[in-house]
Amino acid sequence: MSASFPHRHLTGIYGLQPHEILFLLDEAEQWIALNRATSKHDDRLAGLTLINAFFENSTRTLLSFEIAGKRLGADVVNMQVGASSVKKGETLIDTAMTLNAMRADMIVIRHQSSGAVQLIADKVDCPVLNAGDGRHEHPTQALLDALTIRRRKGRIAGLVVAICGDILHSRVARSNILALTTLGAEVRVVAPPTLMPAAIERMGAVPFHDFDAGLDGADVVMMLRLQNERMDGAYLPSPREFHALYGLTPERLERAAPDALVMHPGPMNRGVEITSSVADHPSRSAITEQVEMGVAVRMACLDVLTRGRRGVEGWA
Amino acid sequence: MTGTLAILDARLVDPAAGTITRGNLLVRDRRIAATGSFDLPADAETIDAGGTHVAPGLVDLGIFAIDMPAFTAGGITRAVLMPDQSPPLDHAALVQRAAAAGKPDVWVHPLAAATKGLEGKELAEIGLMKAGGACAVATGRGWIADSGVMLRVLSYARSLGLTVVSHAEDGGITAGAVATEGEYATRMGLPAAPAIAEAMAVARDLMLAEQTGARLHFRQLSTARAFDLVRDAKRRGLPISCGISPAHLLLSDIAVGGFRTFARLSPPLRSEDDRQAALAALADGTIDLICSSHDPQGPEAKRLPFADAEPGMAGAETLLTLSLALVRDGVVTLPRLIELLSTAPARLLGLPGGSLATGAEADLVLFDPDMPWRIDSDHMASRAGNTPFDGLPVQGKVIQTIKGGVLLR
């Protein structure tokens, strides 16, 4: 730990200072260049063991962390536990203690329950990185989104960012609200009332139920994935009604600022929350760039969080 | 026949008179034989209280586990057992066995399950369970969703002269929820339900109680809207009562911060506004009694992600200690507090105890209301240490629990 990033774990954006978030973004910049080179390798994590413990199904995030670890030279082990086979937390803590006993140098965790990552972080000796816990936080997603926005727009402070869709169940929305408001953006959240969490304005976001009003003049439009099981009548009447009211179409996008950036954390439900023509728009869509930034941000996080145990000067 | 016991130089807290007087108390044949000043019988065993307080032993309405060491440590002499046991107390034989479980020390008074298997569908054999020793009927941890079933439970219980103890949370609204809707649940990403779920259940049950004339007790209420409904019902003269736990009087939903599963309770902790309303309802008499809702849960149920953990807290041994904060804060007087913890629950369910009158059962608690100590979940008498007050410095400690004139260890 050093003054630049005085945290042992990265369990969330909550509690991070603006300069700490910017430090991680700055650190990520160097890895973008490396990742675009022919030889994508750095040895700074050589000899360290990175365990990706995913208790919830994931392809993209797991792959992103695996690539990030390997490009920095770490020995990467993936442990994917199906959502059903390990559900009870005593097993969760037992699993954490097992990983700890195997002397992992860094553990990346995804879990379906809010707070599960903190529970493990309190029990193990090595740094723990949250790759998504329940509806709580997904900090590297917020960092990669912030990096994408900063590179495209040149700044974050003063921008209007509209986060749209299933805010209630979204850890991406929570981490992004925290990160972007901390960095000075105006954050709006747009959702039908059934998918809007209570008191969201207390987190610094401005809630909208009307999609057009929420999009009005926005510099960034961030769409969220809508889980299929939310659309069966429990929260929403049907996918087509959601698309009609909250789907991002080219016409809808006209409401936003003329050069508005379109983002999506993936995987997309094309034709539901976003139409293909918007998602694939050559100049407006930053969706593939987000994936690219994801690897760079995760490399930065793995590097920074292991500096202490690697004996980097100034990092206790 | 037990011997004669004289407690000398005590501060006698008499909830009936609303007084604290310095004096002696004589126990003979398990009953209070005299208070104040009397001639000390030659055969009396004596305890020099040295000015500490003596009050009727606590009557804890609605505990989930028979946990004698915790009751003894907490000054509880009678514990009213929830039917949520394994198997549920929905049969006279099970009730009879539970009623005998505590004797001769702390007495356990079982509540009969209102419905078979506590499933909220078919009436259980309430009449036979009454004969087996059930002191009232309870819906259990859950709410009876079917209003028709609840109507029949209330009218049936009324015909038997039994109070119905109800859990007030509208299950449709609280399904899947583990916290009260609000800023903290939103920040932490916890499934949450709006606080009105409680008042909605209260409103329905009040109407059904009024319709049937049944005595209805809400085991734990925690929201301003629910207290308003009960206050109004009492004003109209309905036989309605409600309880609360110290946790809901002393903590708000901020306490679930950091995903502390010891603060996962049922009903969940509420907003600060609701907590303030609870204090007001306690002060104005809307709340009839304070209970621990003692529910010890080991690490296998609590060392989990918040939403996966079981609700409930081990509250028996800290019931008096935590409640004494309400006296220091000027919410209630000490005699009134003892009424809330002892006399009121005993009277509500027609149980002996809760009195310092001559001839009453010698169920007593000796306590020092000022003694400082620290709650430590790793060192509790209770079967498990799941208390959201872990680490809290507190004042007030039980020195001795006496049941029927016998000193409990």
TrEMBL record, chain A:
<feature type="domain" description="Aspartate/ornithine carbamoyltransferase carbamoyl-P binding">
    <location>
        <begin position="8"/>
        <end position="150"/>
    </location>
</feature>
<comment type="function">
    <text>Catalyzes the condensation of carbamoyl phosphate and aspartate to form carbamoyl aspartate and inorganic phosphate, the committed step in the de novo pyrimidine nucleotide biosynthesis pathway.</text>
</comment>
<feature type="binding site">
    <location>
        <position position="110"/>
    </location>
    <ligand>
        <name>carbamoyl phosphate</name>
    </ligand>
</feature>
<comment type="function">
    <text>Reversibly catalyzes the transfer of the carbamoyl group from carbamoyl phosphate (CP) to the N(epsilon) atom of ornithine (ORN) to produce L-citrulline.</text>
</comment>
<dbReference type="InterPro" id="IPR006130">
    <property type="entry name" value="Asp/Orn_carbamoylTrfase"/>
</dbReference>
<dbReference type="GO" id="GO:0004070">
    <property type="term" value="F:aspartate carbamoyltransferase activity"/>
</dbReference>
<comment type="subunit">
    <text>Heterododecamer (2C3:3R2) of six catalytic PyrB chains organized as two trimers (C3), and six regulatory PyrI chains organized as three dimers (R2).</text>
</comment>
<feature type="binding site">
    <location>
        <position position="171"/>
    </location>
    <ligand>
        <name>L-aspartate</name>
    </ligand>
</feature>
<feature type="domain" description="Aspartate/ornithine carbamoyltransferase Asp/Orn-binding">
    <location>
        <begin position="158"/>
        <end position="304"/>
    </location>
</feature>
<feature type="binding site">
    <location>
        <position position="266"/>
    </location>
    <ligand>
        <name>carbamoyl phosphate</name>
    </ligand>
</feature>
<dbReference type="GO" id="GO:0044205">
    <property type="term" value="P:'de novo' UMP biosynthetic process"/>
</dbReference>
<feature type="binding site">
    <location>
        <position position="138"/>
    </location>
    <ligand>
        <name>carbamoyl phosphate</name>
    </ligand>
</feature>
<feature type="binding site">
    <location>
        <position position="60"/>
    </location>
    <ligand>
        <name>carbamoyl phosphate</name>
    </ligand>
</feature>
<dbReference type="InterPro" id="IPR002082">
    <property type="entry name" value="Asp_carbamoyltransf"/>
</dbReference>
<dbReference type="InterPro" id="IPR006132">
    <property type="entry name" value="Asp/Orn_carbamoyltranf_P-bd"/>
</dbReference>
<protein>
    <recommendedName>
        <fullName>Aspartate carbamoyltransferase</fullName>
        <ecNumber>2.1.3.2</ecNumber>
    </recommendedName>
</protein>
<feature type="binding site">
    <location>
        <position position="141"/>
    </location>
    <ligand>
        <name>carbamoyl phosphate</name>
    </ligand>
</feature>
<feature type="binding site">
    <location>
        <position position="61"/>
    </location>
    <ligand>
        <name>carbamoyl phosphate</name>
    </ligand>
</feature>
<dbReference type="Pfam" id="PF02729">
    <property type="entry name" value="OTCace_N"/>
</dbReference>
<dbReference type="InterPro" id="IPR006131">
    <property type="entry name" value="Asp_carbamoyltransf_Asp/Orn-bd"/>
</dbReference>
<feature type="binding site">
    <location>
        <position position="88"/>
    </location>
    <ligand>
        <name>L-aspartate</name>
    </ligand>
</feature>
<feature type="binding site">
    <location>
        <position position="225"/>
    </location>
    <ligand>
        <name>L-aspartate</name>
    </ligand>
</feature>
TrEMBL record, chain B:
<dbReference type="GO" id="GO:0006145">
    <property type="term" value="P:purine nucleobase catabolic process"/>
</dbReference>
<dbReference type="GO" id="GO:0005737">
    <property type="term" value="C:cytoplasm"/>
</dbReference>
<keyword id="KW-0665">Pyrimidine biosynthesis</keyword>
<dbReference type="GO" id="GO:0004038">
    <property type="term" value="F:allantoinase activity"/>
</dbReference>
<protein>
    <submittedName>
        <fullName>Dihydroorotase</fullName>
    </submittedName>
</protein>
<dbReference type="InterPro" id="IPR050138">
    <property type="entry name" value="DHOase/Allantoinase_Hydrolase"/>
</dbReference>
<dbReference type="Pfam" id="PF01979">
    <property type="entry name" value="Amidohydro_1"/>
</dbReference>
<dbReference type="GO" id="GO:0046872">
    <property type="term" value="F:metal ion binding"/>
</dbReference>
<dbReference type="InterPro" id="IPR011059">
    <property type="entry name" value="Metal-dep_hydrolase_composite"/>
</dbReference>
<feature type="domain" description="Amidohydrolase-related">
    <location>
        <begin position="140"/>
        <end position="407"/>
    </location>
</feature>
<dbReference type="InterPro" id="IPR032466">
    <property type="entry name" value="Metal_Hydrolase"/>
</dbReference>
<dbReference type="GO" id="GO:0006221">
    <property type="term" value="P:pyrimidine nucleotide biosynthetic process"/>
</dbReference>
<dbReference type="GO" id="GO:0004151">
    <property type="term" value="F:dihydroorotase activity"/>
</dbReference>
<dbReference type="InterPro" id="IPR004722">
    <property type="entry name" value="DHOase"/>
</dbReference>
<dbReference type="InterPro" id="IPR006680">
    <property type="entry name" value="Amidohydro-rel"/>
</dbReference>
